[in-house]
Amino acid sequence: YKAGVDVDDVIVALDGTNVRQPKDMSAVLAKHKAGDIIRIAYKHRGELVEKDLMLEESPFLSVSSLDAGDAQKAFRSNWMEEKASKNN
Predict the structure, then answer these.
(1) Span 69-76, mean pLDDT?
(2) What does the alpha-carbon distance between residue 49 and residue 44 come to, in Å, rounded to a whole number?
(3) CATH number, position 27
(4) Segment holding 85, helix H or strand E
(5) The model scores a pTM over 0.85
């Protein structure tokens, strides 16, 4: 929103990477952190607009840790052992 992106605008590139699907956007954003400035390109009413965009943390998202029970810990341990043995 702060970059001027509006309803019905189409984001075509982030940080020089073409965006065709949501996973493309996620891949670019995963490489950055809040405070980074990236270039955004989008179509607004048929015209290409390019602007710098400072990334911010979302005030709507939070990560919380839940204490795992014994069954969950055993499952996780077995799963990790499976992954480790496949990678060796």
Answers:
(1) 85
(2) 7
(3) 2.30.42.10
(4) helix 70-87
(5) no
